[in-house]
Amino acid sequence: MSKSGSRQGLSHQGPLSATDLKRLHRQWRRSNDQRIGILCDGVQNPYNLGAILRSAAAYRVERIWMAPPLVAPNHPKVAKTALGCERLVDVAEVESGVAGIEQARRSGLTPVALELTADAVPLSHIDLSGDVCIVVGHEERGVHRDVLAVVDHIGFLPQRGKVGSLNVAHSLTAALYEISRQGWDRTTGEPPPG
Asked: Rounded to whole angstroms, how far apart are CA atoms 65 and 59?
């Protein structure tokens, strides 16, 4: 940064117009044909589920499997956070997390749990460039052990601060970005312009 505090060579024109924003998102959408699913294994907080639905819609998740204990997607507090995005994602209830994993596999998705375990590796070290189902768990207890036993990979988000973990919805959003980033790299070798 220069002494004046502005970046040299950059023009700041303000936020994109609605038309330009749609055009930008369309470029990114067309540059990645990756399929993404989510398994919510015991997510119970309605605000978390609402935020998950919103992130799922933003990252073009094709299906969310929900295993008990769970909050209903039509709960008023879910809608308050999802802001209409609940209608943009297919949601299916399953009898257990393991049943959700089986359905994800039958759909051609590789299950990857987002959890802090002794054998977890940084999420960025896992090949997420194919079709993936990201698995998140209960707000306090995490992903059930029986589910962890049947996923292909367990990853975590390395953190630099003094907080030991993130909210489940925030963690999932970071994971969705990493999955998409790897998918963009696979598809084009680099992100689209814009």
From this structure: 16
Within a domain: residue 5?
Answer: no
Each residue's pLDDT tens digit, 91-147? 999 999 999 999 999 999 999 999 999 999 999 999 999 999 999 999 999 999 999
**What's 66's domain CATH number?**
3.40.1280.10
- Nearest residue to 32 via CA among 173, 161, 186, 194: 186
- Spatial separation of the C-alpha atoms in residues 172 and 163, rounded to whole Å: 17
pTM (two decimals): 0.84
Q: Looking at the domain assignment, is residue 68 inside a domain?
A: yes
Q: How many domains does the chain have?
A: 1
Residue 19, C-beta contacts closer than 8 angstroms, at least 6 positions apart? none
Q: 43 — phi, psi (to 5°)?
A: -70, 120
Report the pLDDT averaged over residues 2-16.
60
- Residue 87 CB contacts under 8 Å (≥ 6 apart), including other chains: none
